[in-house]
Amino acid sequence: MHVFTDPKNFDAYLSGFLWILKLTGASAVCALVLGVLLAAMRVSPVPVLRGFGAAWVNIFRNTPLTLVIFFCYFGLFVTLGLTLSDDLFRNIYWLGVVGLSTYTAAFVCEAVRSGINTVPTGQAEAARAIGLSFAQTLRIVVLPQAARAVIAPFGSILIALCKNATIVGTIGLAESSTIMKDLINFNGDAVIPIFLVFAGTFAAVLIPTGYFFGWLANRLAVKR
Amino acid sequence: MDDVATGEPLIVLDSVNKWFGPLHVLDDVSLSVGRGEVVVVIGPSGSGKSTLCRTINRLEPINSGTITFDGQELPAEGKALAKLRSEVGMVFQSFNLFAHKTILENVTLGPVKVRREKPAAARERGLALLDRVGIANQAGKFPAQLSGGQQQRAAIARALAMQPKAMLFDEPTSALDPEMVGEVLDVMTSLARDGMTMVVVTHEMGFARHAANRVIFMADGKLVEDAAPAEFFANPRSERAKDFLSKILTH
Ligand SMILES: Nc1ncnc2c1ncn2[C@@H]1O[C@H](COP(=O)(O)OP(=O)(O)O)[C@@H](O)[C@H]1O
Ligand SMILES: [Mg+2]
């Protein structure tokens, strides 16, 4: 454990993990908003919107995340000049959030859509029959019931997102996996302990996250 | 009951056709329902009764012909359609109460969100309606906690809360245990007495005899007979109707 008693290494370990948490938090919020909008498009009566939602899902769900992140860096930033912050690392961070969000939104969309499918069609029909608009039907009747069915899959998506956030290391952000690689490079004698500490940190955060979502899903299940 | 309403009819279907793919579910259906009239629709399964009912508030669009409600052709979409639907109450076979809302919330949702009533006023009226259908003491429960008969009465209260000009019932008692059919029919009978315009798909012949002004018999998407209940049950004119009645009246 001598590696982590060095304050410099310990700080690097902490800051790497902090980047992961920030990437996860920001991307989760963006992916949630975007994913719900995409799902609304996919169930809307407007063909153009349905097509747009379907295209988004098919493109991002079937593209490796590494490619999406590379595109954000080399395509959006290097080629098209999209700069999201003057600070070098902040800029990479935000490019990472863009990539993670657009990618994860595809999975959120599909989870929400299958959640919507668990709501019996009679619920939406009854809502329309009392004169609620499409948006009201979705917002007041369908989504709140779908939300309960979506909590468990959201847990899995969030866990995957947190682990996927390490890919932003490939475009130059000093997040956990990059820090781990550096520490291993300089401490060849402690590869296994270093690995265990990093893996253990992810597990320590993600295992309770999984249990929490499972518990919440049970608690909020709709009785029919 | 022979007090058939006079004046301009409330619901008019003129040569309505509808297909589901190759299936001709409504075949040149023309029908008019007067204000305060109670029309019972019967016919074999698959004859298009539900579809007919659902076209009247445009839950199903039609392919040709016209449907007029209260002097206006049904709007195709948007705000106008939502407004029309708010004026036509609908009661489904499977109740379709909002599962995540309490019974009272089910009843007040439309008035508050569609009719823009004040929540307190909607609540008061909602409770009065629940009282009218005999389930005021269930107001705070969720649908799954109620019996089928209670749920269906709540669904009727939800529709009434919109102060509709007409009510559509699609087999409202078919999903109920036999001992609960009566409580729902009682509510419907009292609505009919109070002058509500009603289109009721049902196989409850007692209700048809006592509460309906007219009985309509459908087969294969066609409107085959349209007669006063007494006449229809005593002398059905078509073979299809005779055959159908002999089947349902024997058990
Ligand atoms: N959404 C639909 N898509 C395709 N066919 C349908 C749909 N709804 C009903 N049908 C068909 O239309 C016919 C009439 O159905 P319906 O109006 O429900 O009859 P009923 O209520 O008299 O039993 C049936 O053959 C049914 O299978
Ligand atoms: Mg039916």
From TrEMBL, chain A:
Keyword Zinc-finger part of the UniProt annotation: no
Pfam families, sorted: BPD_transp_1
GO function term, MF aspect, one: transmembrane transporter activity
A GO biological process held by the record: amino acid transport
Membrane topology per record: Multi-pass membrane protein
Membrane-spanning segments: 20-43, 64-85, 91-109, 149-174, 194-217
ABC transmembrane type-1 domain: residues covered: 17-208
InterPro entries in the cross-refs: AA_ABC_transptr_permease_3TM (IPR010065), ArtM/GltK/GlnP/TcyL/YhdX-like (IPR043429), MetI-like (IPR000515), MetI-like_sf (IPR035906)
Main localization of the protein described in the UniProt heading: membrane
One GO CC term, this protein: ATP-binding cassette (ABC) transporter complex
Compartments it resides in: Cell membrane
UniProt KW keywords: Amino-acid transport, Cell membrane, Membrane, Transmembrane, Transmembrane helix, Transport
Keyword Membrane: yes
Family, similarity comment: Belongs to the binding-protein-dependent transport system permease family. HisMQ subfamily.
PANTHER family: AMINO-ACID ABC TRANSPORTER PERMEASE PROTEIN YHDX-RELATED (PTHR30614:SF37), MEMBRANE COMPONENT OF AMINO ACID ABC TRANSPORTER (PTHR30614)
Protein name: Glutamate ABC transporter permease
Organism: Micromonospora craterilacus
From TrEMBL, chain B:
Chief localisation class: membrane
Coiled coil location: none
Protein EC: 7.4.2.1
PROSITE patterns: ABC_TRANSPORTER_1 (PS00211), ABC_TRANSPORTER_2 (PS50893)
A single cellular component GO annotation: plasma membrane
Domain of life of the native organism: Bacteria
Reactions accelerated catalytically: a polar amino acid(out) + ATP + H2O = a polar amino acid(in) + ADP + phosphate + H(+)
Membrane topology: Peripheral membrane protein
Enzyme category, top tier: translocase
Keywords for the protein's UniProt record, in alphabetical order: Amino-acid transport, ATP-binding, Cell membrane, Membrane, Nucleotide-binding, Transport
Protein name: ABC-type polar-amino-acid transporter
